[in-house]
């Protein structure tokens, strides 16, 4: 590997307070029962700040604030709501360096990704939905908002998932209570400050921090009209069960086990870049990660050799170093999960990682592939949510489709081939909400995203993303 | 006394995989003097199997073809107006149901244009979203005949296959006879007669059912239990409010409820 001089991004741009309250009705306030938890930098295990645990009384206050704000917010002309969202988009752009560093600190993701992917997409998402606010009558879903929306988001793209949730909700005239993930609460709390800077009316956006209990209290709150959740399929099931019979609207964006299919006529170098991006982007903490590689048998050796060579070039380490490709695993809990599944994978198939020195402090896992994997292996069936790739083979397009669809999930899939008719035919047959052909892990606010089957229901992004927030 | 011709009665059986079997349980129940098959758990599972088998072919048929099959159902229904009238279905309902088949038939090759489209992403990519059928839909149908047609037609026109628990058995089985003569591939519509409380829970918890339409469930507690069971495999659940007006403009909602949006990306470049 080339020797690169370290190129660390300065963290001085982020001004962290020692502790944060809950953002309710436009103010930061201490939680009713005073509970706090610590959020750490997963790359160093250093405590970044202390964050409040919202209990039932706090969630209740937040929902009440959102309810009070709803009348005024929903009555605003769409053009006025649009302007608030445009303001937010602009402030995010202006503060994007700060927010990118913060995101990298709290999440462990490489600054290069936070800077080049997360933050630009956050701003773009608000900008996109801002434009819908006064054009809802043309979207085909009516113009009536639902009311108070309870949103629970994951830790893999904390601010981006916040944007996916809040932008369409506000554009359509709803008000929001959002709970960020327990391990990555900081960017949502900084976003509260963005809302204040934008002079968003109090109560339109409320941020309650905490763990699963806080999320459950929010989802089950009787005055919440709509629930939007991104996270694990298991929690998605619990939410679907708990809202049954309440008439609440629900959208769920859940797990995945995407097939990335490489045909023998694929441009191999591009495909290998796509495979790497598909599974090692964001440490594999991606619900749509291409975690099952399906390679046509006659190019298996060529693809695997090339993939291993490429993996040996990946730089694992300090997320704030601009040269870093793979950052820290988000938490010790997640690291344990990845390790446990990798251990099972080792009993089933053959494990390979490039030589790679992991830092002594923090939570780290080397990029890993498993070969000799069959469809029944757990490593090929369960979502690892880490930098772990299961490699399988196929002989015919029909077999590739069969294997790709052989999963309860259906979020995304990849196809690599130079033959257009084959790409379109295979894309037609894949049971997945997003199909990337000769590319992978591309996102855009104009492009609907969401799953088939047990990857959840509803779409986020694009015109389709409005449907979830209109009656 | 002149000798009267003795009528040939109809045996009301289930409609599964394009065939009309009796319930495997051998059970029947009396409806307006007729013995009607009382479907069992096994019948429900057979129906799901038939629906799953038929669904890919039906979804893979051209939209033009699906539209013609639905239109054919309207033709067949028109010819059986007297039979439905004899079962007590109001004439206006039969007419409206016929017209509804025609209305949905026309959607087959138009919905993707209204509900999908190109997405102008910020980069050199072709990006297209198109609706696809959800798969196998379990339907608890309302008692109204117009209601029955209004829940089945929008579910299948897009390429789904359905397992229907009939609300009013005799018109439902008669509708099955209409469909059996409409070039609809066997298994796309399966109709079970019997008790929703007995059959529907098996559909709600079945791993190979993708979605559930609870329109015909009158019992609130049963509806909640079915919704909870459906959460196990994250089925899409349609549970409209009470008091449906079947004569009203149906809108797109009943079609889009059982559709998935697939978005395909491809780079552009010389």
What does this structure look like?
The complex is a heterodimer of chains A (471) and B (270). With 471 residues, chain A is an alpha/beta fold. Chain A has two domains: 19-254 and 452-469, Aldehyde Dehydrogenase, Chain A, domain 1, CATH 3.40.605; 259-437, Aldehyde Dehydrogenase, Chain A, domain 2 (3-Layer(aba) Sandwich). Helix content of chain A is 39%, strand content 17%. Chain B is built from ten helices and ten strands. In chain B, the strands form three sheets. In chain B, strands 7-6-5-8-9 form a five-stranded parallel sheet, with helices on both faces. Chain B has a three-stranded antiparallel sheet with strand order 3-4-10. Chain B has a two-stranded antiparallel sheet with strand order 1-2. Chain A binds chain B through residues 124, 140, 233, 236-238, 240-241, 244-245, 247, 252, 254, 408, 410, 423, 427, 430, 432-439, 442, 444, 446-450, 452-454, 456-457, 459, 462-464, and chain B through 114, 117, 119-123, 125, 127, 129, 134, 210, 220, 223-224, 227-228, 230-234, 236, 239, 252, 260-267. Chain B: This is Aldehyde dehydrogenase. Chain B: Keywords: Oxidoreductase. Chain B: GO terms for molecular function: oxidoreductase activity. Chain B: It comes from Spirilliplanes yamanashiensis.
């Amino acid at each position: 590997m080339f020797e690169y001089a370290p190129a660390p991004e300065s963290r001085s741009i982020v001004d962290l307070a020692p502790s944060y309250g809950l953002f309710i009705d436009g103010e930061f306030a201490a939680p009713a029962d005073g509970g706090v938890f610590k959020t750490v930098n997963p790359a160093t295990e250093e405590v970044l700040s202390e964050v409040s645990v919202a209990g039932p009384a706090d969630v209740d206050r937040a929902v009440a604030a959102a309810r009070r704000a709803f009348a005024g917010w929903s009555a605003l002309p769409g053009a006025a709501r649009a302007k608030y969202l445009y303001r937010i988009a602009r402030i995010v752009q202006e503060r994007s360096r700060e927010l990118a560093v913060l995101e990298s600190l709290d999440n462990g993701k490489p600054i290069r990704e936070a800077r080049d992917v997360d933050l630009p997409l956050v701003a773009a998402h608000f900008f996109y939905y801002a434009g819908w606010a006064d054009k809802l009558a043309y979207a085909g879903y009516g113009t009536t908002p639902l009311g108070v929306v309870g949103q629970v988001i994951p830790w893999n793209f904390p601010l981006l998932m916040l944007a996916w949730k809040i932008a369409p909700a506000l554009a359509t005239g709803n008000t929001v209570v959002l709970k960020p993930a327990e391990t990555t609460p900081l960017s949502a709390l900084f976003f509260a400050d963005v809302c204040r800077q934008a002079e968003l009316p109090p109560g339109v956006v409320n941020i309650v921090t905490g763990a699963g209990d806080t999320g459950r209290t929010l989802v089950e709150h009787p005055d919440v009209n709509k629930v939007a959740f991104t996270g694990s399929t298991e929690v998605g099931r619990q939410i679907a069960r708990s809202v049954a019979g309440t008439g609440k609207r629900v959208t769920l964006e859940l797990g995945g086990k995407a097939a990335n299919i490489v045909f023998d006529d694929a441009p191999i170098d591009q495909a290998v870049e796509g495979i790497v991006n598909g599974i090692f982007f964001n440490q594999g903490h991606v619900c749509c990660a291409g975690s099952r590689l399906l390679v046509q048998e006659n190019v298996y050796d060529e693809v695997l050799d090339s993939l291993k060579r490429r993996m040996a070039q990946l730089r694992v380490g300090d997320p704030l170093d601009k040269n870093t490709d793979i950052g820290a695993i988000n938490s010790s809990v997640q690291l344990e999960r990845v390790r446990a599944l990798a251990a099972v994978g080792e009993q089933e198939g053959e494990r390979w990682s490039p030589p790679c020195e992991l830092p002594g402090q923090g939570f780290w896992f080397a990029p890993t592939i498993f070969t000799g994997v069959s469809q029944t292996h757990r490593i090929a069936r369960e979502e690892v949510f880490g930098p772990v790739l299961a490699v399988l083979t196929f002989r015919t397009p029909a077999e590739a489709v069969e294997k790709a669809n052989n999963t309860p999930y259906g979020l995304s899939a990849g196809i690599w081939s130079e033959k257009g008719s084959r790409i379109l035919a295979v894309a037609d047959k894949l049971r997945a909400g997003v199909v990337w052909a000769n590319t992978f892990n591309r996102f855009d606010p104009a492009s609907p995203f969401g799953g088939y089957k047990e990857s959840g229901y509803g779409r986020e992004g694009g015109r389709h993303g409005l449907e979830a927030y209109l009656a | 006394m002149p000798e009267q011709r003795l009528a040939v009665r109809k045996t009301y059986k289930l409609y599964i995989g394009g065939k009309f079997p009796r319930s495997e349980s051998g059970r029947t129940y009396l409806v307006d003097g007729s013995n009607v098959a009382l479907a069992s758990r096994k019948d429900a599972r057979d129906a799901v199997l038939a629906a799953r088998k038929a669904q890919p072919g039906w979804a893979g048929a051209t939209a033009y073809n699906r539209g013609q099959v639905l239109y054919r159902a309207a033709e067949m229904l028109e010819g059986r107006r007297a039979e439905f009238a004899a079962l007590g279905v109001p004439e206006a309902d039969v007419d409206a149901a016929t017209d509804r088949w025609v209305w949905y038939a026309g959607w087959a090759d138009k919905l993707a244009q209204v509900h999908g489209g190109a997405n102008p992403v910020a980069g050199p990519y072709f990006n297209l979203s198109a609706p696809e059928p959800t798969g196998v839909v379990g339907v608890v149908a309302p008692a109204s005949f117009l209601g029955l047609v209004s829940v089945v037609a929008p579910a299948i026109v897009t390429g789904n296959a359905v397992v229907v628990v009939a609300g009013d058995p005799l018109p439902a089985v008669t509708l099955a006879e209409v469909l059996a003569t409409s070039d609809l591939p066997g298994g796309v519509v399966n109709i079970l007669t019997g008790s929703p409380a007995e059959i529907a829970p098996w559909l709600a918890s079945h791993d190979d059912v993708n979605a559930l339409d609870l329109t015909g469930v009158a019992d609130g507690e049963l509806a909640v239990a079915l919704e909870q069971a459906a959460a196990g495999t994250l089925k899409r659940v349609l549970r409209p409010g009470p008091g449906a007006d079947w004569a009203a403009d149906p809108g797109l909602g009943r079609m889009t409820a059982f559709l998935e949006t697939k978005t395909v990306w491809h780079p552009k470049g010389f």
